[in-house]
UniProtKB/TrEMBL annotation:
GO molecular function: ATP binding; protein kinase activity
Pfam families the UniProt entry points to: nSTAND1, Pkinase, WD40
Taxonomic lineage: Bacteria, Bacillati, Actinomycetota, Actinomycetes, Streptosporangiales
UniProt domain Protein kinase: residue ranges: 13-244
Protein's recorded name: Protein kinase domain-containing protein
Length: 1117
């Protein structure tokens, strides 16, 4: 906690809380503007200079800055999370053997770095040594010597007691005393009084018999009374292979971010929605009205405090501090706005908006204080600015009741002023005429203003939907429908489209999240394991379904949360507390894993991972070197050995594995991919297939066999390479493409075994197991270890943050990028053609029936009405769609890679290398040859008079070729079009380019209309909607764009190939990965219907009142 008068900021560092105080200074928990955590010390005296900033050593807490702020000296150091050595000895007990040697070596390394830089510590003691995750660290650098007598006094060198300067030799003496303390748990020169301590320091040689022999001589020399007899720091260096880690049971002070996030997640969804606005108002000096009871939990967490005059004055190192206050609630520390990333983001979002809101708040306050007088209302530009901000600029700030009343009254006054703008004229006829016209203007003005307010409200509701998109997906979907029903503004439509394709279906959070608890996912259930109980939550219903108390001293839990081990090593059923009667399961504790059947141990392994089949008949055991052994548990025999490329470096670990639900497939995660093993197939002619990007297999041998090794209670050690195999067989495996950032996370199968999911690099990839190909990927937000499919396999869930479960919709997986079979649609979107092997399948998408197959394969092109289909190749063939019969064959003199049919189907264009030719379809004869005009991107204009070939326009009547300069800069290279599309009126031509850009070209003016940036992937296909207002762009994802504003309406379900609008323009169609033709609504009315179905209905009246207070309730679904 901070006390009244503590500095709010020193240098560029914001102080959050006191971490401790000692003889050398006062230490604060602090954060910089980016939220990075530091320890800031205000020394008792002057800081030791800036030279410590230049010392680098892994066992020294880095000194980041040294300075003076308004007379207050400070030292900024790396924040080290870990207990000090005194607390570590209390938790761990005295250190011995290699661990003690490792500690001594680390401290000696730190002293050597200081002394070589000409610096000394002058205060080394157990409190200035912290045990962090990466080893011991020495803190308190650059501080003056202690000015008080405490336990640290017993670590002063004898010469310091006699008045000499504390030099390098004094540090060496302290090193010896600290090492001896670590070995015994006692201060080596402790005395009952100051005189007793001085006597022992000057005359007594402590007992060193507890030290291991490598240290005994060094510590003895270091504790010599004469500094000249002590070794120098480099002589103290001693090596050890042991790694020191913080002892169990230590819980250091949580960061301000962790405290804030835990308090936030403990709130109800309604309270969470109120937090941004309340904290932003506090930042701006406001006293917000707490309508949802949010302030009390934040105060209980220590994030907010009430200023009070009852705090007594306090003497501190920076002077006498006196608290003054008015009872207002304020942030406990301004560091909260830097340390908490979520709040830092809110501030960034609203930085400009807060200025406008402040003017509204202050004006509303003046209006209220002056009895709501009309002279204090907004009008003109002030009102326009306020309405514009409320409509489009704000994201988290909301108007309170007073501010809403103020704006509403300002709008009412504006309406009244418009009605009074009737000039006084001299003649009755003129008066009547003007009166009539002004009445029309007045009514029109009222209607315009009312429309503006409705649109502003719709934009505000759409913004709220976007703000809740990840934290409360269902509410976001319902809000987007409400926004569009209120007014079909662009922002509402974009929010509606985002709701249709967002993968997140919902978020469930443990009502009492605990960062110290372990969370597990089990299908539709969240299992929470804390020190006292196992609690099971239904993720879908949001209700607790079970809670089981745990006996004291339980040590480990199985991965499904059903079984546990006590400290005595005996397993028990979590639900009953009794020994398990049946079932095969594994429990891991540290690096040890035991596999049980009932209460009996089948086998135990160390530094390995274990996967079990659902029926308990098979086990797989993996090693750090990438070798995986398959075992039949009934006969306790090894049946196969598979090797994968293991993870190395800091991520090195035994490969993670998982059996499919029926046990027929084992997935093994290696550095280069996921290997699928069929443990049941061990035929001598079976091969390991490593699927490359092009789908062609390469083979390698994987040895299997039955070694007959006994696995009773012992670690499986059979090695297929060293013999002992009855047969040398091969096991069938397949390799799936590696996810970026492949990790040690466990893969997960869907309940039917059809899908396999694996997280890595901030996303989860999902494969179709039967087809051995990637089916889709989804971004993850703050993922934690834990992934599970729902019981019906339609939802994939992952753990996020602390105790939160995010549910993703995997019922309609996005298509993977890469090369796929060709597909095309007719211009009106009715007919579809797609490659199936060496044939083309034709489908009527309206009647949903197959028309037949034609014996051809290659690039496809329909005419506008879908009557004819051209197929590229050698020769080029033209087919009648209705009858699936051949119309004509065109010999283009080689393999034509691209074709296009004119809208009427009477003219065919073929591209063969750099040569482009046009053909009369009916006569089968060549019409014209265009040299150096061939291109893979071809498109006819709607009237058939122009052919676009890449960046060239061909006038088909005259044969003139007009090249277009698509460069975006004077020195830029000419981009190569990858896709083309004419608008329905023929006035605009869209060019798809590499790098995800789409260039719109005005054909009448010969100028650019603008550029759309869709991402970084090349554009594969473009389609205008029938009325020309929308442009569908298919790249890595499929997106919709408003042609007039060049703004993205939103993304659409991605497909494997093909793109077309329906005839009425209300749906967009594509060919899915499984070859079926699918469609997605793009008409907002249809989209709203589907979003309502996804969300489970509209907002309730209570939810509407809370989320959309500025508008009356509507049943929007």
């Amino acid at each position: 906690m901070m006390v009244p008068g503590d500095p709010e900021r020193l240098g560029g560092y914001w102080l959050a809380a006191r971490l401790g105080a000692g003889g050398r200074g006062l230490v604060y928990d602090a954060y910089d503007d980016e939220g990075r955590r530091y320890a800031v010390t205000v020394p008792r005296g002057q800081a030791g200079g800036r030279r410590f900033e230049r010392v680098s050593c892994p066992h020294l807490a880095e000194v980041v800055a040294v300075g003076v702020d308004e007379g207050v000296p400070y030292v900024v150091s790396e924040y080290v999370d870990g207990p000090d050595l005194r607390r570590s000895v209390e938790l761990h007990g005295p250190y011995q053997g290699d661990e003690l040697v490792a500690l001594a070596g680390a401290l000696a390394t730190a002293l050597r770095a200081l002394h070589e830089a000409g610096l000394t510590h002058r205060g080394l003691n157990p409190e200035s040594v912290l045990l962090a995750d990466d080893g011991p660290k020495v803190i308190e650098l650059g501080l003056p010597a202690a000015g008080s007598v405490d336990d640290a006094f017993t670590y002063l060198a004898p010469e310091v007691l006699t008045g000499q300067e504390a030099g390098a030799a004094a540090d060496v003496f302290a090193w010896g005393a600290v090492v001896l303390f670590a070995a015994t748990g006692h201060d080596p020169f402790h005395g009952e009084s100051l005189g007793g301590v001085m006597h022992r320091l000057l005359t007594v040689d402590p007992d060193l018999s507890t030290l291991p022999s490598p240290l005994r001589e060094l510590v003895g020399r270091a504790l010599a009374k004469d500094p000249a007899d002590r070794p120098v720091a480099p002589e103290l260096l001693i090596e050890s292979t042991a790694e020191l880690r913080p002892p169990g049971g230590h819980a250091g002070p949580r960061s301000l971010s962790e405290v804030a996030e835990a308090a936030y997640l403990a709130l109800t969804p309604r309270q969470q929605e109120e937090v941004p606005g309340l904290l932003l108002r506090l930042l701006d000096g406001d006293s917000p009205h707490d309508e949802s009871g949010v302030l009390r939990p934040l105060m209980d967490a220590g994030l907010l405090v009430r200023r009070s005059v009852r705090v007594p004055p306090a003497e501190t190192p920076v002077g006498k501090l006196v608290a003054v206050g008015d009872g207002r609630i304020v942030p406990a520390s301004a560091a909260l706005y830097r340390a908490w990333p979520r709040l830092r983001g809110w501030v960034t979002d609203e930085r400009e908006s807060m200025l406008v809101h402040r003017r509204i708040r202050e004006a509303a306050g003046r209006w209220s204080r002056h009895r709501r007088g009309r002279s204090h209302l907004f009008r003109g530009e002030e009102l326009d600015t306020a309405l514009g901000w409320a409509a489009t600029k704000r994201r988290h700030l909301r108007l309170n009741q007073l501010e809403r009343d103020f704006i509403n009254d300002s709008v009412t006054l504006s309406k009244q002023r418009r009605r009074m703008l009737i000039p006084v004229l001299t003649t009755l006829g003129a008066v009547l005429a003007v009166a009539v016209s002004m009445s029309v203007v007045s009514v029109q003005g009222q209607n315009d203003l009312r429309g503006q307010l409705i649109e502003a409200n719709a934009r505000a509701v759409a913004a709220r939907a976007e703000a809740l998109r990840t934290s409360d997906p269902r509410t976001a979907m319902r809000l987007s429908v409400a926004a569009w029903r209120m007014s079909p503004v662009f922002e509402a439509r974009a929010a509606l489209q985002a709701s249709l394709v967002q993968p997140e279906l919902g978020v469930f959070t443990d009502p009492a999240p605990d960062s110290r608890a372990r969370y597990l996912l089990r299908g539709d259930e969240l299992v929470k394991w804390d020190v006292e109980a196992v609690t099971v939550w239904d993720v879908v219903g949001g209700r607790r379904v079970a809670a089981y108390g745990l006996p004291p001293g339980h040590a480990a839990l199985s991965d499904d949360g059903r079984f546990a081990e006590g400290v005595d090593g005996r397993p028990f059923d979590v639900a009953t507390g009794r020994p398990p009667a049946a079932g095969v399961y594994a429990i891991s504790r540290g690096n040890q894993t035991r596999v049980y059947r009932g209460a009996r141990v089948l086998f135990q392994v160390a530094d390995r991972k274990v996967a079990l089949s659902a029926d308990g008949t098979r086990a797989a055991v993996s090693r750090v070197d990438g070798r995986v052994e398959l075992w039949e548990l009934a006969g306790r025999t090894k049946t196969a050995t598979v090797e994968v490329v293991p993870l190395v470096g800091p991520d090195a670990a035994a490969p993670s594995m998982a059996f499919s639900p029926d046990g027929s497939v084992l997935a093994v995660v290696g550095r280069d991919g996921v290997t699928l093993v069929n443990p049941a197939k061990t035929a001598a002619d079976a091969l390991d297939q490593d699927l490359r990007g092009d789908g062609t297999p390469r083979t390698r041998q994987v040895e299997t066999g039955r070694a007959g090794h006994d696995a009773r209670g012992a670690e499986p050690r059979a090695d297929a390479r060293t013999g002992g195999l009855e047969t040398a067989q091969r096991v069938v495996t397949h390799r799936l493409a590696a996810p970026l950032g492949a990790s040690a996370d466990v893969p997960v199968f869907s309940p039917d075994g059809r899908l396999l999911a694996l997280p890595g690099n901030g996303e989860v990839r999902v494969w179709n197991v039967a087809e051995r190909r990637l089916a889709g990927s989804y971004p993850l937000k703050d993922p934690q270890p834990g992934l599970a499919f729902s019981a019906d396999g339609m939802t994939l869930r992952y753990l996020s943050g602390t105790g939160s479960v995010v549910s993703l919709d995997v019922s309609g997986l996005p298509a993977p990028s890469g090369d796929h079979a060709a597909a095309a649609f007719s211009g009106d979107g009715r007919y579809a053609a797609k490659e199936v092997g060496n044939t083309i399948e034709l489908t009527d998408t309206v009647e949903r029936r197959k028309l037949g197959r034609i014996a051809a394969a290659g690039d496809l092109a329909f005419d506008a009405g879908g009557r004819l289909l051209a197929v590229a190749g050698d020769p080029v063939t033209v087919w009648n769609v209705a009858g699936s019969n051949l119309v004509t064959t065109i010999d283009a003199g080689g393999d034509a890679l691209a074709v296009a049919l004119s809208p009427k189907g009477d003219l065919l264009a073929t591209a063969r290398g750099r040569t482009l030719e046009t053909w009369d379809v009916r006569a089968g004869r060549r019409v014209r040859v265009y040299e150096d005009a061939g291109d893979l991107a071809l498109a006819f204009s709607p009237d058939g008079s122009t052919l676009a070939a890449g960046a060239k326009l061909l006038d088909l009547r005259t044969g003139k070729v007009t090249p277009l300069d698509l460069r975006t800069g004077a020195t830029a290279d000419a981009p190569v079009p990858t896709a083309l599309a004419f608008s329905p009126d023929g006035r605009t031509l869209a060019f798809g380019l590499d790098g995800g850009r789409v260039l719109l070209w005005d054909l009448r003016g010969g100028t650019r209309l603008g550029t759309i940036e869709t991402g970084t992937s090349a554009v594969d296909e473009l389609r205008f909607s029938p009325e020309g207002g929308l442009l569908a762009v298919d790249a890595a994802l499929t997106s919709l764009w408003d042609v007039h504003t060049l703004r993205e309406v939103g993304q659409v379900t991605s497909w494997a190939a093909g793109l077309a609008f329906s005839q009425d323009g209300k749906r967009l169609r594509g060919v899915a990965l499984d070859g079926t033709v699918r469609e997605s609504p793009v008409d907002p009315a249809l989209t709203a219907q589907e979003v309502c179905a996804r969300a489970g209905g509209p907002l309730s009246r209570a939810e509407w009142s809370r989320l959309i207070p500025e508008s009356g309730y509507q049943n929007v679904c």
